[in-house]
Amino acid sequence: MKKQLIVFIVLFAALNSHGSGFPSLKMGVDARSGGLGMAYTAISCDGSGGFWNPAGLATMEHHDMVLSMYRWIQGARSEFLGFGSGNGTAGIGVYLFHTQVTDLEYRLDVPSDDPLGTFSDHEIVLGLSYARAIKKQLTLGMTLKGLYQKIFTDEATGLAVDIGVLWEMWENGLRTGIVVQNLGRTSKLQETSISLPLTLKAGLAWPLNALGGIWTLTADGLKERDFPFHLHTGMEYLWGGMIAGRLGYQTGYTIDSIKTRDITAGLGIIWSGYRLDYSYMPFYSDLGDVHRLSFSVQW
Predict the structure, then answer these.
(1) In DSSP terms, which residues pair with 143 in a beta bridge?
(2) Going by CATH, does the domain composed of 2-298 fall within 2.40.160.60?
(3) What pTM was computed for the model?
């Protein structure tokens, strides 16, 4: 059984083009960011901000809650509930993120068409965030995360921290953000050590008024320890303050030199403080696609 568990962990991590544990920490959580290619480090000023860059919570001047559900590759499913609140000087946030993969077959070392049974993988992340302006147009934020994973009957727990900064560079709204994610450690899963995906991200976001609407251009560069550099880019067009169209592009995601993903797309509807967002990310190599649906309310 131990051998089967280790094989599953390796395969699930490989599907995300990385080799560390807790792959849910790299999957993204909401549909707006999904449509923008997950280039969200410099615009994380909503209910999901504690996950992306907690420094963005201090720039909020309202309350925001987001509920997101999506189906990941190979039948993995996730649910996310996040809340953020700020007054323009300080902000707080909390989120709960659950990912599960069910009906995984297991066998002993002897090959067989019939499995002995099935098991599931569950990952839960609870995040608590605080952010504050440390000088004009510069904010600092931190998220403390509790981690839990259960595969079959084996469990692991851990703690991690994200630390981010956000700087509004120009009066035209150009922002840059930097965040270090997943500084921490976990207990072993059986006798297997788990390495968290320590990641450094740097991003830009630039809003523009053109063609009768508001354009937002985003870009993130990210580097996970011991793995290749990735570039995430996104573009959003908001028309009439009500309809949003989004496109994104990601680079560097391959398995055995075969590209696994690149383009993302999404749509959003905003009305009287309510937002409904959808995003789509196709995967290649018969891995399946990612569909995200989010509902948000701002007050």
Answers:
(1) 129, 162
(2) yes
(3) 0.85
